Amino acid sequence: MDIDLLTNIFYAMVRTGTPLLLVALGELVCEKTGVLNLGQEGMMLFGAVAGFIAAFATGNLWLGVIFACLGGMLLSQLFALVALGFNANQVATGLALTIFGVGLSSFIGAGWVGKPLTGFEPVAIPLLSEIPLIGRMLFAQDLLVYLSFALFALVAWVLLRSRVGLIIQAVGENPNAASAMGLPVLRARALAVLFGGAMAGLAGGYLSLAYTPMWAENMTAGRGWIALALVVFASWRVGRVLLGAYLFGLASILHLVAQGIGLSIPGNLLAMLPYVATIAVLVLLSRDAIRTRLYAPVSLGQPWKAGH
Amino acid sequence: MLLSLEPRGQQSRPMLWLSPLLAALLTLISGALLFAALGHPPLETLRVLLIDPISDLYGISELLVKALPILLCALGLAVVYNARIWNIGAEGQLLMGALAGSALAVHIIDWDSRWALVMTLAVGTLGGAAWAGLCAWLRTQFNANEILTSIMLNYIALNLLLFAVHGPLKDPEGFNFPESAMFGDATRLPQLFEDLRVHAGFYFALLALVVVWVLLQKSFLGFQVKVLGLDKRAAGFVGFREKKLVWIALLISGALAGLAGVAEVTGPIGQLVPQVSPGYGYAAITVAFLGRLNPIGIVFASLLMALLYLGGENAQMAANLPQSITQLFQGMVLFFLLACDVLIHYRPRLKAAGRLKAKGWTKEAAA
Predict the structure, then answer these.
(1) Residue of chain A with shortest Cα separation from B286
(2) What is the value of pTM for the model shown?
(3) Which one of 3.30.565, 1.10.357, 1.10.150, 1.10.3470 gives the CATH number of domain A3-295?
C-alpha cells in the first residue's frame, strides 16, 4: 500500500464517519438525559429530503442545511410529544418515528429522486492540507465536516465541563432526585430530544448535500441504527463516539481498501461489513452485563412523570 | 382551558380496543387533509386508496395475497413482543426464508414429487428460524441488544439475497437479470382458485393463527412468555428460565417470518427476485401493535395493512400519488395509536384556566 492510497483512505474514513458522528452525538445527549430515541433513521431521512428540496429550490446549500436541521427537529418533537408528554413506551415510539420518517421522506421526495445538485465541495486549507497522511483527512474536507469537528468539541465541552452537562447527567441518572432539586426533568429531556433531532437532520443533510448530493429513498441505509450501536460502543463517553464513528466509517469504505490491494470480493458481500462490524462490536462490548449497566444512564428508556 | 392527564389507576378495557379504531380514524382524517392540501379531492382519493382495490373478487384475492406474509410475520412478532423481546428483524427473517427456500428450489426444478414443495417450505421456515436464532444466541450468550442486532441482520440478509441473485443463484439463461430461474411446478404452492392469485399459503396462515392463539392464550408457555414480558424479575423468582424463553419466542417468530418468505417465492412470485418483500416485515411491526399483540386483532390489522399496500399501488396508477403513501399511512397509524394509548392509562380532564387564576389570586391576596 502506498502513501497516496493511505491518505485517501483516511480522507474517506472521516468523510464517511461524519454522518455517523453527527447522529451519534445527538443521540448521546438524548440518552444521557435518559431518553432512548430509536427514531434516528427516520429523522435523518426527513432531514435529508428537507435539506435537498430546500437547497434545490433556492440554490442555496446553507439554506438546505438549515432546513435539514429543522426537519429533524420537527420530527423529534413528535417523539417528544408522544413519549414524554403522553408517557408512551420509548422503544415503540422510536420505531414509529422511524417508520413514519421513512414513509414521509419517500412520499415528499418522490418527485425529487435523481435530480442533480452541486453539493458542498472540499475546501483545502493551504499548507495544513499538505501534511502527509493526515493533511487531507483533517484539512481538505468540505465545510460540513469542519462543522462536525466544531460540534464535537461543543458537545464534549457541554457534557464534561458545563452546568448544562451536569443537569443532563442528573436528569438521566436520577430523574426523581433531579426533580426534587427543582430541575425541569421533562423540559430538559424534550430539549435533548430536540437537539438530537437537529443533529440527525444535519446528518441527513450531510448525506444529501455533501456526501452524495442527491436524494434517493432510504439513502441513509441504516446509518441511524448504526449510530445507536455506536453510543453503546462508546459506553456513553463522548470521545469514544468520535473514535467509533471513524472506525465505522473505515468499515464502510473497506471496498476501497480491497480494491487498493487488489482483492476482488463481490460488492454485496463487502456492503455487509459495517453491519457485521456493528454486531461484532455489540457482542464485544455487551458481553459484560455489569459493565454495560455501569456506564449506561440509569433511567435510560424509563418513562417518567412528575410526582410518581 | 387547560388539558391535563389524570391517572385512571387501572387500565381502561374499552379504551384498549377503542384506541386502534380511533387511531385508524385519525389517520383517515389526516390523510384526507393531506390529499386536500396536495390538491387531490380528499374523499375521491380515499376511495381510490381504500375501496376501489377490493371492489371485485380479484381485488379480494389480491388483498389476501398481500395480507398473508404480513399476518405470518405479525403473529410471530406478537409472541416475542409479549415477552418484551424487541425483534425488529422480521424483514430479514422473511428474506432469509425466501433465500434458503430458493437455494433448494432451483436445484430441484426437475423433481415431480410433492415432497419438493414440502422440503422447500421446511428449508425456508428453518432459514427464517435460524436467522432469528442468531439474535437469540447474541442476546442470551453475549447480552447484545436484540433491537440493534436484529435490524443489522435485516441489512445483512438483504445484501446476502442481492449477492445470491447476482451470483450463485442467478438464472444462467436469464439474460443476466438478477433473478433466479423459475421454480419447477412441483415446488410451487397451488392456487386455491383458477384465475385468482390467492394460494395454499392461506391454510398456513390459518394454522399459524390457531397455533399462536392457543400458545398465547391457553398454554403454559404463553403464560411464561407474558410473565417474562411483564416482569423479568418475577419470572426469575418463580423459576421461569429467561434464556430458554428468549430462544423459543425468537425461533417461533423467525420460523413464521421464514415461512412467509418462502411462501412468497413458491407462491405468487415463483422465483427469487431482489424485491421479494416491499417491507412486509416492517409493516408487521405496526400490525402487531395495532392488533394489540392479540392474534385475532392482528388478523384485522393485517387486512388493513394489506389494503394500504393495494391502495398505494392503485393510488399511483389512478391518482398519480407516490406509492410510498403506504409507508406514510403505516407510520401515521402507529403514531396515532401510541398517542391514543395514553387514554388507556390516563383520563383527559379539562381544567378551567379561570379557576387556576382565581387560586393564584387568593394566594397573592393571602400574602
Answers:
(1) A96
(2) 0.90
(3) 1.10.3470
